[in-house]
Amino acid sequence: MLGEVELFFLLFMAGLLVKVASGEYLIWLHKSLKNFLVYIGIPALLISTLLSSRRMGTEFVSAAAVTVISILAILGISILYHRLSMRKNGDVLLLLNTFPNAGFLGLPVCYILFKEPGMYYASIYVLFGTLIHYSIGVFVSTYLKNRSMNEGLDGIRRFPGFYTMVLVFLIAQLNPPVPQVFISALNLLGGVTITLAIFFIGLSITFESDVRVFFRDLIHVTTFRFVISPLIVLILCLYFRIDPDVLIVQSMMPPAIGNTIIAAYYGMNHGLAANVTSALTIGFMLGFFILVYLIPGLS
């Protein structure tokens, strides 16, 4: 019988095989899954987790503060680095450095590692990370690209995922009385979401050039995503005196798929975004699968 980890890896491989076999013929499947996950699945999972926990006090504020401060710190460090080094493709690298795939990949990983108790912090990270990603992140990256404040503001309006997370935030804060049948339906959607999200990750893998072409940028983003980001989260968690495990895992996810979409829409180097994101996602998946078997009790 397959365990959660084996199923996790097989779903990823199934998505990857479908992508390789079908090429662009099943682009409708990728788009349909993305729309379901962004507008229905992940919001349903976040709402059910946050409402079921009923923990909207100090713990919620502390986890939200760690998320917001850590992401803004990475964003600031990335901006400063690119201003000093004047590296090419600074707008794309800023997105890749700062915004992880905490939703599609982070939520399933946290569920496998920490089960239901870990989904609370994981959901908070996705909620506030997405709000920053599709507001400040879009604005800063488009401003660096075109030096136009109007285009930066326009970017926020054009990505409705931001408004979806605003709705989730309002529901979580208002904490309305919800019938149990509605919570059960959301929980069911959440379970489907975790399964489809892993398949979607495999389906999203794409390379537009040889790894050697973007190796330097790959190392650069790897340093930000897997070293600097979790280190900042650890320091903040110690300061706010909350358990760092889940937030650290979320903070070291590979770059979000949404970064490639933003880059393509605004004429940035979306090929670089796709290449780095795909390489780090494959590396993460293989590393995660191996570590789970090497370290007893990890899952």
Condensed summary:
The chain is mostly helical and 299 residues long.
Description:
The chain is an all-alpha fold and 299 residues long. The protein has a single domain (4-22, 35-294), classed as Na+/H+ antiporter like fold (Up-down Bundle), CATH 1.20.1530. Helices cover 81% and strands 0% of the residues. Helix 3 runs antiparallel to helix 4 (90-98), helix 4 (90-98) crosses helix 9 and helix 9 packs across helix 12 (270-294). It starts with a helix and ends in a 5-residue tail after the last helix. The mean pLDDT is 86.
Write the layout of secondary structure elements.
Elements: H1 4-22, H2 27-53, H3 58-85, H4 90-98, H5 102-146, H6 149-158, H7 161-174, H8 180-203, H9 215-240, H10 245-251, H11 257-265, H12 270-294
User: Could you give the order of the helices and strands?
Assistant: HHHHHHHHHHHH
* Measured distance between first and last alpha carbons: 16 Å
Count of the domains: 1
- Sketch the major β-sheet: none
User: Within the CATH hierarchy, at the fold level, what is the topology?
Assistant: Na+/H+ antiporter like fold
Mean pLDDT: 86
User: Briefly, what CATH class?
Assistant: Mainly Alpha
CATH architecture: Up-down Bundle
**Helical run tally:** 12
Radius of gyration, Cα only, in angstroms? 18 Å
Low-pLDDT runs of 5+ residues are none
Shape: globular
- The structural class is mainly alpha
What portion of the residues fall into strands of 2 or more residues?
Answer: under 5%
Total number of beta strands = 0
Helix content: over 70%
Protein name: AEC family transporter
Organism: Candidatus Syntropharchaeum butanivorans
Keywords: Cell membrane, Membrane, Transmembrane, Transmembrane helix, Transport
Subcellular location: Membrane
